[in-house]
Amino acid sequence: MKLSKAIFALLLLVVLITGYYVKRSLDLQEKAINLQTGQVEDASVSNEQNDNCHDPVSGKMYSHFVNKQSVNLRESPNTSSAVVEKLDKRQNVLLLETAAQTAPDANQFMTKKVIEFTTETTSFTLSPNKAIEIVDPEPNTTMIRIRYIHPELGALEARVPKDTVTNLVNETWVKVRSNAGNEGWLLQRFLDNIEVC
Fold first, then answer.
1. Mean pLDDT of 160-168
2. For range 124-128, the mean pLDDT
3. Neighbouring C-beta atoms of residue 183, cutoff 10 Å
4. pTM score, two decimals?
5. Which residues on adjacent β-strands are paired with residue 131?
6. Residue 126: which of 139, 136, 112 has the closest Cα?
């Protein structure tokens, strides 16, 4: 009698353990299928959001990070469109789409270095990677006259060396989603691939 109770208890334990592992295996298979089809449970998306490696909207792992400080995420793929968000260096983003390159006849220029604007009443320092206009290309010189439209100070002009600005001809724009959930465009050269998150 004692032997049959021991055998029954052992069999019951084996059934419980087997049931646990079968259920766990089925749950893992279901999660794998959901990830492959893009269906992610709310709880898993929430957990992924907390680890800073996954997009808060889709749950997909971030593909790139920003390689420059204070990069403008823009509404459209050009420097004259509105800024949606300022991205910090090493901020993770999800690549959504790649646009055609900037047209060769486009008049889009950007600062490569810090530029100092000085007027009679004030001075202003413009950081790299800001959109500017060319006022006078000054052919046959190493200088160029540029204009920057400041939101409060208005139009500011300066004469600077030509190597302080770059023409955005043939630059590739990409659409990304930031970890704040904002979608917008930036230049592809401001992104690097994430190796490991």
1. 85
2. 88
3. 17
4. 0.52
5. 110
6. 112
